[in-house]
Design brief:
4 copies of one chain form a homotetramer. In chain A, 60% of the residues lie in helices and 6% in strands. Chain A is mainly alpha-helical. Chain A binds a DNA duplex through helix 3.
Amino acid sequence: MFIEILPNSDTPIYTQLMYQIKIGILKKEWSYGDGLPSVRSLASELGINMHTVNKAYNLLADEGVLVKNQKGYFVSERAMMASNEHTKAAIQDKLKEILIDKQIFEVSEETFNGWLNEIEKELEGQGKADADI
Amino acid sequence: MFIEILPNSDTPIYTQLMYQIKIGILKKEWSYGDGLPSVRSLASELGINMHTVNKAYNLLADEGVLVKNQKGYFVSERAMMASNEHTKAAIQDKLKEILIDKQIFEVSEETFNGWLNEIEKELEGQGKADADI
Amino acid sequence: MFIEILPNSDTPIYTQLMYQIKIGILKKEWSYGDGLPSVRSLASELGINMHTVNKAYNLLADEGVLVKNQKGYFVSERAMMASNEHTKAAIQDKLKEILIDKQIFEVSEETFNGWLNEIEKELEGQGKADADI
Amino acid sequence: MFIEILPNSDTPIYTQLMYQIKIGILKKEWSYGDGLPSVRSLASELGINMHTVNKAYNLLADEGVLVKNQKGYFVSERAMMASNEHTKAAIQDKLKEILIDKQIFEVSEETFNGWLNEIEKELEGQGKADADI
DNA sequence: GTGGTCTAGACCACT
DNA sequence: GTGGTCTAGACCACG
C-alpha cells in the first residue's frame, strides 16, 4: 500500500492518513483481520511523527474501521463499521455543502455525475480487478 | 433573509456564514447587484465578531460570489461565479471523501440518493415558491 | 473546584482528571453550560502538560459529558450524557471485577454496603447542601 | 476449568487470567491446596505467552490467593486471602469510579441493582449446583 | 486568548 | 517490539 501524505495541504495529516487507509481497505489491499504497520514504523516510513499516526489509528478505531489490542491495530469486520448517527450526520452536512457549491458555481449535472463516476471507478481499483477474475 | 448561526458547531462560524449567504442567493433572496448588510450591522445582528463577518465576505469575494467596492459588498453576476480550477478541485476532494465514507460505512445507493434529493429539494425552497408565482 | 492529581498513581493523569471533573459536576460545582478552565491554564495550575488536559477534555466530550466549540469546553446538558452501550458494558465489566474481589477477599455484605453509602454520601457533597435549603 | 481469554480486549491478558482463576475458585472448581496447571502447560493450552501466565500467577500469589512452592502454584486457604489494606483501597477506588459513572450517566438504581444481582448469580454458578447436591 | 496540529523525545506496560 | 502516557515547545486557525 502506497500512502501519500501532502504535508502542506490544509487537511490535517492525520485526516489524510485516515482516508488513505480507508482507500486501502476499499481497494482490498488490506482485508479483515490484517494488521496495520506499527505506529512507529509507519511514522518513520512517511516521515511524520508517531503521535500523528497514533491519532489517525485511534480515530479509525473510534469509527469502528480498525480494532486495537495489545498486539497492534487491525482491520475490523465490515459489519463493525456500521455507520452511527454521528457519522451519518457528518456525511450529510458535507453533502449539503457540496450541493450548495455545485449550484452556486453552476457545475452541470453532467460534469457532476462525471466526477461521481470517475471517483467511484478510482475507488474500485484492485477490488474491481478481483471481481473480473 | 434569516441567517442562522450555530455557535456550538464543528464548522467555523465564518464557514457557516458563507454557506448561509450562498443559500440566500440560491433561494433568490438576494439577486445580482443586491448589497449585503454592512459588516458591522450583520455582526451585531448575529451576535458574532466583526472580523468573522469580514472574513466570510472576503472569502466569498475571493470565490467570485461577492464583489466589493467602496460602498460595501454586493452579489456578483452568476457568470462571475464560474468555478475556477481551485474551486473545482476543492469540490472534487470533498466529494471523494464523502464517497469513501459512503462505501466504508456501507451507506446504500438508495439511502445516499435519498439524501441527495432531500437536500436538493431543501435548497430549492423559496426559489421554487417564487417560480410558482 | 479543587482538583487533586497524584502523579505517581497507576491510574493515568488524564483518567484522574476525568473523574475529578465528573465529581465536580455531581457536586454541582459546575452546572450546565459552565465553561471549564482553558486547557493551558488548567495544565499550568495543576503542573501538568497541556496535552494531558486536552486528552481528558476530549474523552469527556466523546462521552458526552462536555461539549466543545471554538470558545472552549463546556458542561453539557445532563440529557446528553446518555449512557451508550459501550459505557454500560464498561461499567458492568468493572462491576464484575469488583464483585469477584469482594467474594475472594471475603468482604462482608455490611462492609461493602458501608463503602457504597460512604462514597455516595461523599459524592452528594454540595448538591445535598443545596437540597437542604 | 475452562478458561476463556479474549485476545482483543482492553483488559490485559494477565488480568483476564487472574479473574478467570478467581472465578474458578469461587465456583469451587479448585479448592484449598489444589495445584494449578504449570505455567508452560497453561500457556500452551491458552495459546498465550509463558511470561503472561507467570505474571498472573505471581500477582495472585502477591494477593494471597495462590501460594508458590518448589512444586508449583497452589490455591491457598481462604483465610490467607484476607484483604489487606492495599487490596481494600484498590476495591474502594474502583467502586468510587463506578458510582461516579453511574450517577453521571444516570443509571437508575433499579438497573444498577439488576446488574449486581445478575453478576452475583453468575458467580454462584457451579458453586450453587454443588450446594444442591 | 482559545483550542488544534505537529514534532521530538522519554519512560512504561504488555507480550 | 508493540502501543500508552507524559512532557516540552512551536506554529496555526478561530473569534
